[in-house]
Structure formats: structure tokens, C-alpha cells
């Protein structure tokens, strides 16, 4: 079955074709970063309008690139939530209309399910059951993944997501939007031991996260230190990054011990972070456990993970009703196959 996947939950329009038994056929992505940069964050209305403008041309590009035709598509998958409602509606309305017109099965996908299954697109892939650490701009989740559609959220952030903390701290430091990757780059030259920043909820027994206090701690540092000095900037970035990563790694290792699961999928934008990968690797090796990542370009939002999740669900016989409604807030715990 050849499935078209559509991702439009935030500021990236992603489309892809996945065929079961064959694999990923092609994928195309358009990032709206330049559109939102002037505002220092995603402007929802601009995001929706841009998805409307880009979706059709991108699908045209996808078909040309893969040398496939619209008539060959046998199923459609789109991101139904969570995300920005206007942005989600663009993908939902398009996918449902195309499916209706061509009498194809259509399925609405949970964006975080896309992220947690994304390492299964790679050669080196985990087998069910596994643990997933999903760290993106909107979510920080530790999930027990029993099988497709069988998810138990073990821990999540009580306030800012890890990526959000990176972005907000970068903004405080005067870095350009989107700041997370820039802050991480700056941290590479810094001394992570120079400033002692808090490790929120590190010693709590549960697997919950909290990152908003860290941003406040950095704001106080910025008031005291001279940010014009590049060394100070790099040291603050490194100290901040170490604090976030220490907590992410410690809680993930705790989850490995609690569940006994030896395979850990790490995905979402922050999974591209080099320090996270190095620290996690060291911790997991000691426990005899192993990490699995999507390829770098699929760490952030993309259509491939939606086409893939859609293909698995459609192949299992799941079809959504003809319904344009989206789910801007949606817990993974609610999912079933
Ligand atoms: O998964 P994603 O593309 O979007 C959401 O679903 O939210 O993740 C984007 C997030 C942003 O917050 C971005 O700053 C962060 O991932 N990010 C990073 C790095 N690369 C992207 N954060 C830390 N280090 C990185 N190297
Ligand atoms: Zn995402």
C-alpha cells in the first residue's frame, strides 16, 4: 500500500510517500523559519496561511521526485494533533477531501506517535516493546511503548518542554530564532562547570520534568554577567545545556531501571543535541541498554514519520471517519490501534 503522509502541525509543511514492504519512497519538507524569524517565534495565523500556499506545490514536487502519480496513492495519513489548530486544519481538510474525492482510506495521526516511531524508518531499528524519550519544542515525554497504539506516558513536563526551554533561553541571550540549535552550538565552546544552575526535579522519585525555572535562573545570570563577552555567552549556554541534559538523562535511566526495557528510542528536535547523545550513551552503556535515533533530518518535524505511522495503521485496518476536526491537545494515553 502506497501512503501519502502530510505533516502541518506547526511551522513545517512535510509530505512523504511510504509503501509497506518497500519503505520510504520520497519526502519533501518546507520550513517556515524565515517567515517567523522576524517575530522571534511561530505566529499561528502566518503558519496556517503558509501551509495553505505550500501544500499543493510540495505534493507536486513529491510526485515528480518519486516518479509516481496521484492515481497510484492508496491511502492518506495526516497529523490530526497535537499542534496549532489552524495549521492542523489545513492538513486535515486537504487529506480528508483528497481521500473523499479519490475514495481512499484516510487516517489522522498523533504527531508524537510519528516522532516515537520515527527510528523504525532506519536500518538499525528497535523492536517492540521499547522506551521512548520524546524531546521536542512542544513536548517532553517518557513513554512505555508496548506495541503500535499501545502507549503509556510515564513522565512529562509540568511546564516548558525541553526544546521550548532551549528556545526561550536562547532568546533571553539575544540569539536569533529558532535559538535551540544555536544555543547548542555556542555551548560546544563553553565551560559547563562555570555556572551552577539548578537540575529541576532531579531527585524526585517520579519521572516528571520542569524546565521553566531554569530559564529564570539564566535570566538572573544574564543580569549579573557581561553578555558582550563571547566566553561568558558560551559558558552560560554550556551550563544551561548541561542542566537540561543532566535531568533528561537521569530520568531516562531511571525509567530504564523501573521498566526493565533495554531499548530507548530518542526522537523530537532536541534528540539532535550532541551532548544529549553523548551523555545518554554513557549512561545506557552502563545499564546494558541501547539508544535508537531517527536520522538527523527526521529528528525535527517531517512528513515521513506521518506517512510511516499512517501506513502501519492503515495496514492494520484502521480508517478515520470523514471528519475534519483536529485535536490541538491530545494525550498519547488516549491512543488505541
Ligand atoms: O520536533 P520539533 O521539530 O518540533 C516540535 O514538534 O516541537 O522540535 C523543535 C525543537 C525546537 O525547540 C528546537 O530548538 C529544538 O527542537 N532543537 C534543539 C536542537 N535542534 C533542535 N534543541 C537543542 N539542541 C539541538 N541541537
Ligand atoms: Zn514535532
Can you tell me about this structure?
It is a single chain. With 337 residues, this protein is of the alpha/beta class. 42% of the residues lie in helices and 19% in strands. It has two domains: 2-116 and 300-334, 2-Layer Sandwich (Nucleotidyltransferase, domain 5), CATH 3.30.420; 127-293, Nucleotidyltransferase, domain 5 (2-Layer Sandwich). The strands form two sheets. A five-stranded mixed sheet has the order 3-2-1-4-5, sandwiched between helices. Strand 4 (75-81), helix 3 and strand 5 form a beta-alpha-beta unit. Helix 2 runs parallel beside helix 3, helix 5 runs parallel beside helix 7 and helix 7 (212-224) runs antiparallel to helix 8. The longest helix is centred in the C-terminal third of the chain and has 30 residues, at 230-259. The two termini are 18 Å apart. The structure holds 5'-O-[(R)-(carboxyoxy)(hydroxy)phosphoryl]adenosine and zinc ion. 5'-O-[(R)-(carboxyoxy)(hydroxy)phosphoryl]adenosine (KG4) is lined by residues 10, 136-138, 163-164, 166-167, 178, 180-181, 184, 268-270, 272-273, 300-301.
Features:
binds zinc ion; 337 residues; five-stranded mixed beta sheet; 2 domains; Nucleotidyltransferase, domain 5; binds 5'-O-[(R)-(carboxyoxy)(hydroxy)phosphoryl]adenosine; 10 helices; globular; 10 strands; alpha/beta; single chain
